[in-house]
Amino acid sequence: MTALPRRLSAPERRQQILDMAASLFVERGFESVTVADLAHELQTSRPTIYSYFPSTEAILDELLGQRLSGLLSRLDPLLRDLSPDSPPSNAAEVVFRFLLGEADTLRLLHSGGAPTFQARRHAFLSQLGERLTLSPELLLRRQPELLLLITTLLDSLALRAVTDPSLDADRLARSLNTFVVGGAQALRGGHGSGS
Fold first, then answer.
1. CA–CA distance, 21 with 27 (Å, rounded to integer)
2. Given pLDDT bands bounded at 50, 70 and 90, which one contains residue 56?
3. Is the dihedral of CA 13, 19, 23, 24 positive or negative?
4. CB atoms within 10 A of CB 176
5. Can you list the domains of the chain with their CATH numbers?
6. What positions does the DNA-binding region cover (predicted)?
7. Nearby residues of 104 by Cβ (< 8 Å), 6 or more positions away
8. What's 6's DSSP letter?
């Protein structure tokens, strides 16, 4: 006699919906996934999905909240472990390589173009930038333009690296290093010996 499958608790079902949605959003793109698609993949009904989330936008918003807060909390110790004497490029390379290891979250972050999610991505980049200012060598507290360039470049390069397997991640990391070192040197030169 076979046992009936255990019924999922409400929190387990909610997480199951989130996990399936993440998979579909990454695979198809946010705009291509409907509540009906989720219900079909989970072998449940649309009303069941709606009892947990009012829309696919709400699902993506919660997913991004979960994934990005976890991502940043895992990144913090890596940046804290950098030596205060580390060159500026070290922090950028640590972040770049870390983002490569977070391919699904990075793809999810870029899976939709709705204004709400653009705002979420910009907020993430701002938080990423705040983490980079912890490295005093980067001079980013005084150079918000360079901070914006570096965080945007990190995000774009990492996304390209995880979506295009033909790209050499090590070569991208070296290029990023060259860019950051050059930018920091230019800033030091522009601020005289007092900075």
1. 10
2. very high
3. positive
4. 21
5. 62-190 (1.10.357)
6. 34-53
7. 22, 26
8. P
Query: For the chain, what's the residue count?
Result: 195
Distances from the Cα of 38 to the Cαs of 84, 158, 176, 187, in angstroms?
Answer: 47, 28, 39, 50
Locate 67 and state its tokens: 């994934």
And the tokens for 57?
């936008």
Residue 40 has a pLDDT of 97
Record the tokens describing residue 52, joined without a space. 């947990």
Question: Which of 133, 146, 130 has the alpha carbon at shortest distance from 182?
Answer: 146
Could you give the CA distance from residue 175 to residue 2 in angstroms, rounded to a whole number?
58
Distance, CA of 150 to CA of 167 (rounded, Å):
20
71, 154 Cβ separation under 8 angstroms: no
